[in-house]
Amino acid sequence: MFEGTAQETGRRFFAALAEHLARALGVYAAMVTEYDARTGRARTLGFFAGDQRIDHHEYDVAGTPCGVVLRGAQYVHHPADAQQAFPDDEDLRRLDVVSYMGVPLHDARGAVLGHLAVMDRAPMTDEPRHLALFHLFARRAAAELQRLRDEAARGGAARADATAAPAGNGNGEQALAALAADFLAAEPYAIGNAEILGRSAALATLLRDVREVAPTDATVLLLGETGTGKELIARAVHEWSARRARPFVRVNCAAIAPSLIESELFGHEQGAFTGATRRRDGRFALAHRGTLLLDEVGELPLELQAKLLRVLQEGEFERVGSSATQRVDVRIVAATNRDLERAVERGEFREDLFYRLNVFPVRLPPLRERGDDVVLLADAFAARVAARLGRRVAPLDAEGARLLQAHHWPGNVRELQNVIERAVITARDGRLDVAHALGGTPASRAAGTPGLAEAADDRIRTVRELRELERNNVLRALDATGWRIAGPSGAAELLGMPASTLASRMKSLGIRRTPAPPA
Which of 69, 104, 203, 348 has CA atoms 20 to 30 A from the CA of 138? Predict the structure, then answer.
């Protein structure tokens, strides 16, 4: 089975892959193997340990963590107990490693070709960015091994066609080094207990803007579709500023009844209105010397916009029911998915408030503009969900990655999280069924597209076409729910967005219900 599979250029590629992966993750050893299920033996195609490339090694996988990966076709992670878990594995003792991480390499039909593993002499966590890079290298290794096996099956000469396999030559080794370096240099960015994960040019531009504005006290306006992570970016502005030790306070302007927004923002005195049984500080007072995120700021009623403008200009306000002026020092970050300039033109948003908020606008790219980030995020989400549910899953295969990249993602990262959680829950034999998970998205059920149908249509769409796609999708959801916007089984729930967001999108897209003709 092994004879003639790994050609010379392929061996160089796998050796380079193992070395660059080990160096990028800072682990003692990394290896790529091919597997013969008939004999139960594996052979290393690339093996790097202790700062040196090691010659090929063939071994029986029984009683090894590699055997669990290969025979079970599943991701395996032993953070610190590898030798205890596999006491008969002499290689673990010889290398003096205590931690192990391995993942199977699948062909297009799902058969196990081999596996990729890393080992270390210290405990090894599966932090999301390292896990994403590990899975990315696994896909590269699987694709190259599949190509070599296909060529061997056709009886091809022992050569690497540069056009068919750019990874198999010297340039491929340089590409692997650059991939690892660029990936780790571009991310992650820790924000509290969360991370911003990705390496796309669009995300790099976003983070560069945030890094530039965060140390200042300038007001930031975050603009982006629902689910793009506006709150996470707002937290980044706070965490990367001099106010990081002070409070970060968030208020969703769309989630509060109009009659209560003033009290929520500025506080109230006891007895100021029915139900005001005690004095209460508002969000501005709570955020004193810190940062206040005004989420969905475009949903503020006009009468409240004037009072908000005063606080931004003068730094002072009065509690509801009080005549005493209170001064406050707050850095404002506002966020919206609405077109505020259009709202100003329609008289729905004050022009002076818009200019006061629009000091430093930051656009958050939708997921469909972030290229390979969707796959990196999916792998990281899958690992987290699997760990939470106590399951083991393999990384995305090539077809799953293709389907994710072809999807339109109207709900962006939030929608991707839901899809991947569904895929982990419905996984069979540790393999994610992305097609099934995408087929269950509310947008796909309501509209039939975008989703799997769009996978067959890879053409680039214009902004007008994308707007029309979104408009038709919202209309289908409204028709499917009898134009019920909020509540259970409403269009907002079907589309995976807040009812207030759907209402604003309907205004922006010019969607109004036409009265039924008289009977």
Answer: 203
Helix/strand/coil for 194: strand
Q: For position 222, what pLDDT does the model report?
A: 97
Nearest Cα to Cα of residue 91 among 70, 55, 62, 64: 64
- pLDDT tens digits, one per residue of 201-231: 898 899 899 999 999 999 999 999 988 999 9
Rg of the chain's alpha carbons, rounded to an integer? 27
- Of 443 and 311, the one with more pLDDT: 311
The single-letter code of the amino acid at 116 is L
The whole-angstrom separation of Cα 313 and Cα 482 is 45
pLDDT tens sequence across 129-160: 677 778 888 888 988 888 888 887 776 544 44
Query: In 3-state terms, what secondary structure has residue 453?
Result: helix
Distance CA(469)–CA(415), nearest Å, equals: 17
Residue spans of alpha helices (H) in 169-257: 170-186, 201-213, 230-239
* Phi (first) and psi of residue 441, to 5 degrees: -70, 140
b/e burial code for range 365-394 (CB count within 10 A of at least 16 → b): bbbbebbbbbbbbbbbbbbbbbeeeeebbb
Give dist(CA 110, CA 260) in Å, integer. Answer: 56
Residues near 74 by beta carbon (within 8 Å), at least 6 away in sequence: 68, 104, 392, 393, 394, 429, 430
